[in-house]
Amino acid sequence: MKAERRKGDSYTDRLFHWLQMEEKLPIEYEKTIKPKVYKIRFQNKPFILKGYRRLHVIQQQIEFFQHWNYAYKIAARPFPFENGVYTKSKLGCDWSLFERVEGRHAEFDNHNDRKKAVQILHQFHRTTKGIAVLSIPKDPLYVKWEKRLEHFEETRDIFSDFRKKGMYQELRSCMMDRLEKFSAHPWGEIEEKAWENHEWLHGDVAHHNFIISPDKSIKLIDFDLLHTGPRIYDHIQLAQRFLPYVESQRSTLLKYFPHIKDREIWWEGVLVPADLLREWLYGYRQSLREESTLIRHIRKLEKSWETRKKFVRYAEHML
Length: 319
Description:
14% strand, 13 helices, alpha+beta, 3-stranded antiparallel β-sheet, 11 strands
């Protein structure tokens, strides 16, 4: 077996020894993607092997995909190890196989990739509506954003230390104002209708979860945050992922989402700068021990915020 794992990775060694020797599965290790996610070959075909700490997350996916008739066209599906067995338990995880989609991640700075991402997400929403599988409850988007704001506020002293308190106050004020307007909509009714209609959300529409094959086709991967809810949540977050690349071409964003029905609510959601807070918090946690890295991250946020302010002023006229 050709080993590319990190030196001294005894966890990976034990996992694959157990799969091959004890479970007698024809699995070959290829590469570690990240902890508990591996590129492998199973029965001489390419797959992803993924470990789950919470069994219900993978169980929901397995049941969901068994009811989704168009999954083979749109997504990387779970695959059984043997005789309908989809999970194996070892080393504190439940392990599952997924089809491996060969290709590259979508690049949201590319117009064609953005267009493909919107189209495949729309196909996902359209073809999964009505699948009556028990959904893992998730916070509504505005509640998720309220929690993100709280985490952002916990970093206030960092901005003071680097003499960027004004930026912090501006961003916090905008977040609170836009979030208040967004959360004022009757989300209880909207969510209840989505649950009754069994509308499904992917839940993580980052560029790396859209894979574009060499033949230019596109598929969705990683359904760990799958749940029922208003589809507009996915569309808002995908639009926010596009924003850094289209803010200077202000009317462009609308053209990617012609099928959005509640255009005003969608716009108000897009204008909540929750994506800037997400990127800040992610970078902040990575650079806690590296002051030089942290100041670069603050400057990156400052640049993003200056651009976003201009976009928000423009978009407010569209409401």
